[in-house]
Amino acid sequence: MRVLIINSSDTVGGAAVAANRLMEALNANGVKTHMLVREKSGNQLTVSALKPAWRQQWNFLWERFVIWVAMKLCRKRIFEADIANAGTDITHLKEFQDADIIHLHWINQGMLSLHDIRKILDSGKRVFWTMHDLWPATAVCHYARGCEQFHTGCDKCPLMPGSSLPRRVFKKKQQMLSGKKVTFVCCSEWLKGEAEKSALLKGQNIVSIPNPIDTRTFRPHDKQLCRLQLGLPADANIILFVSQRVTDPRKGMEYFVEAVNMLGEHKDEKRAGQEGRKTIVAILGGHAEEVAEKLTLPAAPLGYISEPLRIAAVYSAADVFVLPSMEDNLPNTIMEAMACGVPAVGFNVGGIPEMIEHRQNGYVAESGNAADLAAGISFVLGHPDADSLHKACLHKVNRCYSQQAVVKKFLELQASR
Question: Distance between CA 45 and CA 118 in Å, rounded?
Fold first, then answer.
């Protein structure tokens, strides 16, 4: 059995990380798996890139231009939508022709057009499509933000008010899927529930299988050694926030800042953790300095790190990981933190409460409630049995998200008809 995974990138973004991990897990378990990407930045031999590069850039720019016009020349939310009006036909490539199963992942921003996807479906090969967000189930958006238009037909899109483009894209997606069977793989039960409401996916097979994580890399490392390597204090409570772009509004940074500043207001630091210990905030990701300036507690902006072992060291150095996303599927960052034995605190949205078992391996706060988020941070930092939280995190990851656990589900899915 040969599998071809298709994703826009091999390393950039959460979907790329998840797709890459799945490729490695399948290969490690005897399933010959290759990845095809629009842009390759890594050096893996099992990853190929589309050519020529100028054509990929043109596809990207043309799609952005059409979206920009539909948004009435507003750039603020231009990357919240994709319309797949331009792409590359991959069905003639050797990688495609050699594959028995085509496994689509995040194929946006000029990689595949709707017409290209239809050609894939017409090939007769079995197709899986892992949904890293809602885009395969909506007209143009990746997250619905409470909008229910995709339940019927995306007639009135909040992203493009007054534009007929979303409705036209919705109809093109219907035509693309007409008469074809695709197995849609959702990374969380929450996303599966949302996908099942979509008028686009009626009659399609929709299952839930989480992303895998390599527990050989993301595992507990010596906390004091990691702090020494990163220049972090050995005797402080460390609150960690991680995001590719920490200023992304969807990641809830405003609530993080408010919650941390609530902790900082309590001079005795009882709410911020163990009495008498200093508390600092470590921030990993692009634009970390912008967030650090808004905090009343001392902050350590770590910038952007791409090397997995070093990222694992950052998690291992922390006492609690916080991700107050307002919309999210199954965040890799929460999974990575827990795999390193670090309890997580997040809002009750998306797939987050499936990962964090409230007061067992972390804390699930009321969505949009900064005070409850602060209470969750205090719960973890002041927990009388930190070792029990640590062990609960590792148990959850090994049971649900390890390569062995996830690959077993995919092998079962591949064997089914």
Answer: 28
Q: Could you tell me where the DSSP H helices lie in 279-351?
A: 288-292, 308-317, 332-339
pLDDT of residue 416: 78
- pLDDT, tens digit (0-9, with 9 covering 90-100), for 21-72: 999 999 998 999 999 999 898 889 999 999 888 888 999 999 999 999 999 9
**Residue (of 311, 322, 325) closest to 362 by Cα position:** 322
Q: Quick one: which of 369, 238, 394 has its CA closest to 314? A: 238
Mark the ranges of the chain whose per-residue pLDDT is less than 70: 266-276, 417
Residues 37-42: contacts with CB under 8 Å, at least 24 apart: 37/6, 37/7, 37/8, 37/9, 37/10, 37/111, 38/8, 38/9, 38/88, 38/109, 38/110, 38/111, 39/8, 39/9, 39/10, 39/12, 40/9, 40/10, 41/9, 41/10, 41/11, 41/12, 42/10, 42/11
Exposure class string for 36-60: b at 16+ Cβ within 10 A, else e: bbbbbeeeeeebbebeeeeebeebb
Phi and psi at residue 17, to the nearest 5°: -60, -45
Structure tokens at 296: 């009343």
Q: What is the pLDDT of residue 37?
A: 95
Q: Please give the DSSP secondary-structure letter assigned to residue 349.
A: -
Helix (H) / strand (E) element for 192: namely helix 189-195
Return the closest-CA partner of residue 299 out of 290, 308, 307, 309: 290
Tell which phi-psi region holds residue 414, choosing left (phi > 0), alpha (psi between -120 and 50) or beta: alpha
pTM: 0.88
Kind and range of the H or E run holding 128: strand 126-131
Tokens matching residue 256: 């993080």
With H, G, I as helix, E, B as strand and everything else as coil, classify residue 59: helix
